[in-house]
Amino acid sequence: MSQPPYPQSRCPQPTGRGPSVPPVPPAPSPFGGPYATSPRGEYPPEANPQVPYGDGPRKSFVATWLLSLLLGTFGADRFYLGKTGSAVAKLLTAGGLGIWAIVDLVMTLTGNTRDIHGRPLEGYPETRKKAWIITAVVWLAGAITGTVLAIASIAVVSAAVEGFNVPAQAPLPSSQAATAPSPGTSTEANASVVTMSEGNTVRVSVLDSLYTAEIPGMSYLEPKNGGFLAVQVSWETVTGSSFATPSNFSVFDADGKEGGLIYLGQEVGGLQTEQVGAGDARQGVIAFDVKKGPVTVVVTNDYGDQASSFTVTPQ
Predict the structure, then answer these.
(1) Of 26, 37, 56, 91, which has the most beta carbons under 10 Å away?
(2) SS3 state of residue 237
(3) Looking at residues 266-295, what average pLDDT do you find?
(4) Helical ranges in the chain per DSSP H
C-alpha cells in the first residue's frame, strides 16, 4: 500500500457542513446604536435630554412682584404661587404686621422666591432692574404722602383746638357777667385778694364764663348735669409765691350740688398747675360739669379752706 502524499495530520478534515463562509457584518442601525435593529433598541442619551421643571409652566415674576408690592399685606402673592396655607396666615395677620409682606417683597426682588413646586419665577433676569426702580419710587412716594398727611392732620387738630379759645369770646352782657366776689378783699370788679397761706396772697379774678354742651377735643366726655361751665380766671401772686392750679376752685349750683372739675390741657387754654412768683400772673380756663344757671365759684387756700367765692350766671 502506498503512503498518502501528505501526512494525515496535515490534511483538511471534512466537516460535513459545506464550504466555510465568512460572517456578514450587521447592517447599521437607523437609531444610532451598533446593535439596535428596531425601534425597541436603546436611544442614545442625547435623544431624551432632562428638561428641568418640565411638569408645567412657571409662575410669572412680574405678576408675583406686583401682587407682593400692592397686595402683599393680604397674601395675594402667596395665593398666586399656590402656597395657600401660608397665604391664609399672612392674610389673617395683615402681612405679619407688615414685616412679613416686606420680607416677601425683598425675596421676590432678589430672585429667591419659588412657587409651590420649588420652581423659579419666569422672567426674573429680564425685569428685575425695572422692578427695583419702580419699587423704590413707590416707597418714596408713600413716605412723602404719609408725611404730608401727618402734617395736615396736625394742622386740622390745631385749628380745632384754636376754636375752643374762651378768652377770644365776645364779652358777655352785663346781666351775665360775674358779680363782685366775696368775702375776700375786693380790689376791683369780679376780683379779690385772698390769703393762700402765711405770707402768700393772690389776686383772683373772673374774666369770663361760658356754658357749653361739649368741650372741643374732648367729645368723649358726656355731661352728667346737662353741660359744662367754662370760667376764665386770672391768678396773680401779690406777695410771696403761690401755685396756680385748677384744684383750688370748686363750683356749686343753685341747689348746692357740687359740680365735677375737669382738667383742661394747655392746647385748649386750660389753667396749668405751676408756681407763680410775686408780681407774676397766669390766666387760663377751668371747667366744671354742672347744671346751667347761677353758680357759685369757690376759691380754697393751701389748707383746703374757703378763701373767696364768686357768683356767675353763664349763658
Answers:
(1) 91
(2) strand
(3) 87
(4) 61-71, 76-80, 84-92, 94-97, 99-109, 124-163
The more confident residue out of 182 and 90 is 90
Nearest to 179 by CA among 312, 43, 15, 5: 312
For 241-312, strand residue ranges (E) read 241-244, 249-252, 260-262, 274-277, 281-289, 295-300, 306-312
- 304 Rama class: left (phi>0) / alpha (psi -120 to 50) / beta: left
End-to-end CA distance of the chain: 171
Q: Which pLDDT score is estimated for 133?
A: 93
The Cα 32–Cα 28 span in angstroms is: 8
Q: Residue 213, Cβ neighbours under 10 Å: how many?
A: 10
Task: Find out whether 59 and 108 touch, Cβ atoms under 8 Å.
Answer: no
Does residue 27 or residue 306 have the better pLDDT? 306
Burial class from Cβ neighbours inside 10 Å (0-12, 13-18, 19+) for residue 11 reads exposed
Residue 103 pLDDT grade (very low, low, confident, very high; cuts 50, 70, 90): very high
Give the residue among 225, 204, 220 at the shortest CA–CA distance from 271: 204
**CA dihedral sign of residues 194, 197, 200, 204:** negative
Burial class (CB in 10 A: 0-12, 13-18, 19+), 155: exposed
Residue environment code for 240-269, b if the CB has 16+ CB neighbours within 10 A, otherwise e? eebbbbbebbbbbbeeeeebeebebeeebb
Distances (CA, A) of 291 to 166, 224, 252, 260, 294: 19, 9, 9, 10, 9
How large is the average pLDDT for residues 178-204? 66
Which among 48, 115, 129, 119 is positioned nearest to 77, based on CA atoms? Answer: 115
